[in-house]
Write a structure and sequence with these properties.
The protein is of the alpha/beta class. The chain contains 10 helices and 9 strands. The structure holds xanthosine-5'-monophosphate (XMP).
Length: 319
């Protein structure tokens, strides 16, 4: 916990359920699911407290990993959550058109997210509360004394007319504790050990302009990398890993002919709370295999590099 106390997950769940019930009574609560562990554990807790008075909205911004929206929506339904999937990729791509600056991209994605979410939340009759999977590092990083490092879109506010009160049962927990709470609630291991994923998704791993084609390229490269980590039994030992599509092209050669194509960077780090992170010394054979596979199978990519910078001085995400 943020105050250094050791978490008792069973006690936390019992207390949180009581507190949520006392806070919201018989009111309707909306919650944005992201596919990540924080919002999922929040949903399970609130669901335990108030059942179908919780309405979950899962927005597809088109910037998730390959097949992720469909797979995760099915899992949510399997958990018995009252969830609505909202396919809004077109709105996000339209909002990001022509924007290359990282902060402007984050703002465009964040604003569109708020717009899409607010449109859907207004359709939920008599909703009075918004439940969020905010955790302690989100609050600590947003309050950095030296100003905003990156705008985290999930900390942004909804329009005034919605007047929602906030339900944030995880706000004093670290990530590893959220996982303990998830395990206590019976959340499947594949979900519990999912890597953290930024709210703006692959948008902050697609350097330069975000287009459906560039995101598709990145999804394919990312899937090859993460599948290889899973096959090697490494995925669960890693805090976070993924591919980044650079905004540079470089010269290559295929079948004796010159190519001038995209560069993909691979990043894999370990961390405790994402405030600092260490690069993982992945087996060189695995990196070589993934590089060959990406260059051979992903159209428009002819070069793959592995990033070796810790945080600080780099951040985990490139944008
Ligand atoms: P950085 O890049 O700041 O990332 O070292 C630290 C951790 O935060 C995640 N991240 C985000 N998570 N909304 C989120 O929910 C965001 O806007 C966002 N930006 C970065 C990142 O993936 C890493 O785990």
């Amino acid at each position: 916990m943020y105050n250094g106390e050791k978490l008792d997950a069973a006690q936390f769940v019992a207390d949180a359920i009581k507190e949520i019930k006392a806070q919201v009574g018989g009111d309707t609560v909306v919650l944005g699911l992201s596919g990540g562990v924080d919002s999922t554990v929040t949903a399970l807790l609130v669901d335990k407290a108030i059942g179908h008075n919780l309405v979950c909205l899962f927005v597809d911004h088109g910037l998730l990993r390959k097949n992720e929206f469909e797979d995760v929506l099915k899992s949510y339904e399997g958990m018995g959550l009252n969830v609505k999937g909202i396919r809004a990729a077109d709105r996000f791509f339209a909002a990001c058109k022509g924007i290359s600056d990282p902060e402007l991209k984050r703002k465009a994605i964040g604003k569109t997210f708020v717009d899409v979410f607010a449109d859907e939340a207004r359709k939920v009759k008599d909703a009075k509360w918004l439940a969020q999977g905010t955790i302690w590092p989100d609050i600590a990083e947003s309050q950095s004394a030296k100003g905003t490092i990156k705008s985290h879109h999930n900390v942004g506010g909804l329009p005034e007319d919605l007047h929602f009160g906030l339900v944030e049962p995880l706000k004093y927990l670290y990530k590893f504790e959220v996982r303990e709470v998830g395990a206590e609630l019976g959340l499947d291991r594949s979900f519990l050990l999912r890597h953290p994923f930024p709210g703006p998704g692959l948008g902050v791993r697609c350097l330069g302009e975000i287009t459906p084609e560039r995101i598709h390229t990145l999804q394919e490269a990312d899937a090859i990398f993460t599948d290889a980590l899973r096959e090697a039994g490494l995925y669960e030992k890693i805090w976070q890993a993924g591919a980044i599509l650079l905004n540079e092209r470089s010269t290559g050669v295929t079948d004796g002919a010159r190519t001038f194509d995209n560069v993909v960077a691979l990043r894999a780090v370990n961390s405790v709370d994402a405030v600092t992170a260490e690069v993982i010394d992945l087996p060189f054979e695995l990196l070589q295999k993934v590089a060959r596979q990406i260059a051979a199978q992903v159209d428009g990519v002819n070069r793959v590099v592995y990033e070796v910078t810790p945080k600080p001085p780099a951040t985990i995400e490139w944008e």
